[in-house]
Amino acid sequence: MLLVGLTGGIGSGKTSVSSRLAERGAVVVDADAIVRELQAPGQAVLAAMVERFGESILLPDGSLDRQAVADLVFNDDAARADLGAIVHPAVRDEIARRVLDQADTDNVVILDIPLLAESGWDGIAGTIVVDLDPEIAVQRLVEFRGFAEADARARIATQASREERLAKASVVVDNSLDLEHLEAEVDKVWAWIESQRTAQRDA
Ligand code: ATP
Q1: 1-26+107-203: what CATH class?
Q2: Which one of 20, 39, 166, 198 has the fewest CB atoms closer than 10 angstroms to its CB?
Q3: 27-30 and 126-131: which strand pairing?
Q4: pLDDT by residue (tens digit) across 152-165?
């Protein structure tokens, strides 16, 4: 297994990059998808959240009302810390389990973790950073993802800065241009991955 981190700010294009890496054969471990799975009805994480925050975080069908949770922790540091204490260890355990499953394979495993630049992960051969001017990320979040502009800016402001992220990069994907350019950037990343695999085999 070659384990590689993938990170970038909100709306930078992590999913667009990871899906293109998957097309080239990589196995993607997506932290956001794992969060959603662990917060599904019947899961222990959702039960613990209801115990802490009450039934008001549930929609009528019993699924999680994400906006209600976002509203509850907004401006409440203690609530945000409690939420993190419930969700983060479970997510880390599940990521670790999926990575361990791949340990004895020849696969390239991409860890798509939004906060990787902040938290790190043991055993990664390097980190791919998806980079673009945050103004372009704001535009795309508004145009394609239905964000209010102020909300997009507020979310970006709470994350690591562009410079902090780039300082941790082994290889950078420039996603400031069109999708054709992104495809070429992903080819460049795949060449870097192949060079890492060769180095790993020869070590
Ligand atoms: P999040 O942080 O919310 O997980 P993300 O980093 O995974 O987001 P994407 O969902 O891949 O980002 O991209 C954000 C939006 O911008 C999507 O709607 C995507 O289709 C679009 N997008 C990504 N790259 C480009 C590009 N080069 N040109 C135009 N649109 C793009």
Answers
A1: alpha beta
A2: 198
A3: unpaired
A4: 999 999 888 999 99
